UniProtKB/TrEMBL annotation:
<keyword id="KW-0328">Glycosyltransferase</keyword>
<dbReference type="InterPro" id="IPR029057">
    <property type="entry name" value="PRTase-like"/>
</dbReference>
<dbReference type="InterPro" id="IPR005764">
    <property type="entry name" value="Ade_phspho_trans"/>
</dbReference>
<comment type="subunit">
    <text>Homodimer.</text>
</comment>
<keyword id="KW-0660">Purine salvage</keyword>
<keyword id="KW-0808">Transferase</keyword>
<comment type="function">
    <text>Catalyzes a salvage reaction resulting in the formation of AMP, that is energically less costly than de novo synthesis.</text>
</comment>
<comment type="pathway">
    <text>Purine metabolism; AMP biosynthesis via salvage pathway; AMP from adenine: step 1/1.</text>
</comment>
<dbReference type="GO" id="GO:0016208">
    <property type="term" value="F:AMP binding"/>
</dbReference>
<feature type="domain" description="Phosphoribosyltransferase">
    <location>
        <begin position="40"/>
        <end position="152"/>
    </location>
</feature>
<protein>
    <recommendedName>
        <fullName>Adenine phosphoribosyltransferase</fullName>
        <ecNumber>2.4.2.7</ecNumber>
    </recommendedName>
</protein>
<dbReference type="GO" id="GO:0044209">
    <property type="term" value="P:AMP salvage"/>
</dbReference>
<dbReference type="Pfam" id="PF00156">
    <property type="entry name" value="Pribosyltran"/>
</dbReference>
<dbReference type="InterPro" id="IPR000836">
    <property type="entry name" value="PRTase_dom"/>
</dbReference>
<dbReference type="GO" id="GO:0003999">
    <property type="term" value="F:adenine phosphoribosyltransferase activity"/>
</dbReference>
<keyword id="KW-0963">Cytoplasm</keyword>
<dbReference type="GO" id="GO:0002055">
    <property type="term" value="F:adenine binding"/>
</dbReference>
Amino acid sequence: MSKTAELQAAIRDVADFPKPGIIFKDITPILSDGKLFRQAIDLLCETAGDRKIDKVVGIDARGFIFAAAVADRLGAGFIPVRKKGKLPWKTHQAAYSLEYGEAVIELHEDAIKPGETVLLVDDLLATGGTAAAAVSLLEKLDADLVGISFLIELTFLHGRDNLSQHPIHSILSY
């Protein structure tokens, strides 16, 4: 069985979470299995290609899990994009819509130096609102965004359309 097939087999669907009508893709079986977690990180690291990455940016909260591990493997710094009010320093903010609500994310103003190469990593691409908001924050800092990588993409929500100006990599698609 291929690495992607093993990962796909481990993901559990949870109906009506976090609200009725949503089928949540539960990644905790991957996280709890050392071999599968390593495979997921391996595949996400491969999306960087041969580019030297200065910073890996992860989106609150599940994106932190993958982005921090990818940053460690690539020898890069890790930068958190947090929900509003969670970062202790001066921030830039971006508002966005989710498939089930609205939110604001923040990034420290000094998190990335102009021109630093950045890989944005998150667990899931749904409508693309969260990732698009994170991209707008990175653009404010003049980051060189070399790619956006997701463990899972829900293709039927067309989130990729909101990010089409950047290379997008998804390990698993539904």
